[in-house]
Design a protein that fits this description.
Order of helices and strands of chain A: EHEHEHEHHEEEEEHEHEHHHHEHEHH
Protein name (chains A, B): LLM class flavin-dependent oxidoreductase
Number of domains of chain A: 1
Organism (chains A, B): Streptomyces adustus
Family (chains A, B): Belongs to the NtaA/SnaA/DszA monooxygenase family.
Structural class of chain A: alpha/beta
Low-confidence stretches of chain A: none
CATH superfamily of chain A: Luciferase-like domain
Pfam family, one (chains A, B): Bac_luciferase
Distance between the termini of chain A: 30 Å
Keywords (chains A, B): Flavoprotein, FMN, Monooxygenase, Oxidoreductase
Mean pLDDT of chain A: 93
Oligomer: homodimer
Amino acid sequence: MTRQLHLNAFLMNTGHHEASWRLPESDPHAHVRLEHYVGLARTAERGTFDSLFLADGPQLWNSVGQRPSGALEPLTLLTALATATRHIGLIATASTSYNSPYNLARKFASLDIISGGRAGWNIVTTAGADAARNFGLAAEPAHAERYARAAEFLDVALKLWDSWEDDVVVADKAAGVWGDAAKIHPPRHRGTYFSVEGALNVPRTPQGYPLLVQAGSSEDGKRFAARYAEAVFTAQQTLQDAQAFYADLKSRTAAAGRDPDGLKVLPGIVPVVGSTEAEARAAERVLEEHIVHRHGVAHLEGLLRLPPDTLELDAPLPSDLPPESAIEGAKSRYTLVVELARRERLTVRQLIGRLGGGRGHLTFAGTPEQVADAIETWFTRGAADGFNIMPAVLPSGLDAFVDHVVPVLRARGLLRTEYGPRQTLRERYGLPRPANQYTAGAPALV
Amino acid sequence: MTRQLHLNAFLMNTGHHEASWRLPESDPHAHVRLEHYVGLARTAERGTFDSLFLADGPQLWNSVGQRPSGALEPLTLLTALATATRHIGLIATASTSYNSPYNLARKFASLDIISGGRAGWNIVTTAGADAARNFGLAAEPAHAERYARAAEFLDVALKLWDSWEDDVVVADKAAGVWGDAAKIHPPRHRGTYFSVEGALNVPRTPQGYPLLVQAGSSEDGKRFAARYAEAVFTAQQTLQDAQAFYADLKSRTAAAGRDPDGLKVLPGIVPVVGSTEAEARAAERVLEEHIVHRHGVAHLEGLLRLPPDTLELDAPLPSDLPPESAIEGAKSRYTLVVELARRERLTVRQLIGRLGGGRGHLTFAGTPEQVADAIETWFTRGAADGFNIMPAVLPSGLDAFVDHVVPVLRARGLLRTEYGPRQTLRERYGLPRPANQYTAGAPALV
């Protein structure tokens, strides 16, 4: 069988384009309506996607005046979606900086059981002072400290998820013995950031633990991914950059003593599908025309750490921007934006147009065959194991992708035509169920 | 219309009797099977219950060898149940000691939106060192400190739930203006236990915030309930005690400046239904015969803070037990058990038999008419606004209650015969939607 493409649907409000909510078709309340997400999840399942994904940050963005703001908390929403779907994986973002391992491990274990082994965790360290100030901190912790805490968080969570061996339950009703307490392993963890004594109060789950996903592309982020991640979401603007990122991450994974095929790389793309290329370009232009440039300038100034009213719409970026090393958080996004502007000699207005669609992710616009061509090229030329699909407008952009691009990918033998028997999320991605670190003779997990 | 009874179904594993899992009919894996809970929720909805409820503690009880252990995390499980039901309220236990207000407020707000206004929060402060040691503490915080933190937690959570006024959304697509940022109110809270700066990232919900439920019956617990709670679960062994508790809590609520009818008192009862009284008593005896007394003694020694192997099965409790004031956590449970043993002159063996069924809650055993009589007596004689129904065996005990006792209660005009139009949980309990504390002219919340 041909190597198979992995597809993840990144669901966000009325779409990834910041102006999508202004289109006549869009429901400005969709982002807090369960039915909106149920519809999207079922469409993604119709397209035999591996998984769907929700981003998250524990703060209200300063955007209420500009576009739909607020959200349903991802683990809660995905649990509701678990009961409305049957096959698709469910990946929730959750922060290692603003959760405790015991609580979060319980929630993911519960979702994994309820969904029949379809839970995934997009591990984030959460940049920004706004989030920090919602959790008793005066400022955000330093980048390196956030990653150190994340690594310890993972180690504790993995111990908790393994704290029940798979065969604890005896269920001897006659003797009145339910389980074998010798097969329960309290972590007894004492570390820098956490002390966690007792075993989890959820039995080991269908997958053992959720699929571990990561999306930071900074140096710290890549080191973390090589050690823990089974899937990586990334923003890459050119085939060459994507190939370099792919090769680098696979070799880091091997260097960490892991099978490089045990980590799947999924660049984010914004597919814009038309019956002709011109039609696709026209749809892009309609969205660009709905951008409020004043908001775009303010957002860009924030991303580039510039004072308000520094940027001019029809001029290029200033030439004296600081290097990535001077930036705290969203480091790789910073570099991507600066390099995009310089490589393509974009004005601020043009840059805002390019970023409005996918916040730095690449747009593949054209006919279904052209979009499929671009996907196949990246997939077969060492740039991707699959893609994180980020439609500019939802639900219409996901409908278009599933109705028109998916059939082309299937005809080329790159994507399953049906799900077949029920599988866990990890099985969909072709990954083995992890052994339990406490089971005698089993190999160590990490 | 006759004053209406409120019924809550307290769902626990294969039943509230500790030996229920040993019956031939019981599934020893039921407690981690979604279908088990979906079946129970639908039965409760068939019985037009107001709500269902899940207890919780963030630790694994030391009981793996004895009975089904571990659980699905309540907020996760209730979210799944929200999509499988239509009318019934969904009350999750969550701890103020081991959560952060921002995270928990988001989750309850999300569940309230997803369920169409059916979320409730059973507020607990979580006694015990085992839980504390899963969250970086060496020992449990003192009782009074846990309640001080709980009060501040509630104040912050109420600010977060009110941080969006109801009419934030403008949705002016032509102007590119989504919401009115002036109607967002960041809490900017700086307190003893919490600092929370920003507004919640979930809009105000159908109920404004979840129904606030509480179950601690200690002095601190009653003070807290009088200030915040809209429903109280309690364990009372005699009509006289229940009347005294009811009157005391209502007068404390009035003294706190609230309408006493704005707090509903629901004693827990274990209904054991037979076609004759003898059949009900026989069902009780079968369960008692399945109790492993060795485990019961150990549990009782823990509850009474006695060293292991202190108690003798066929002797009464020691006469020199400490007073409640010397006990940390589960204070009212301690007193209830000691008083029950002394009042009825029970041996340890008899006491364990009485506690095995409902851990201190009262059993109403008999024919459907006899159970309905007891309910009606308590309800009409100032002891209860409704009941927390705790079947000894699940699902069979809930089936029996709904099939045989509910029709009697309906025939007496005490319980709705159908749900009628969709209502929020708070509406089911006959309580008004709270005003937003930030809306000009609205009365203060608490």
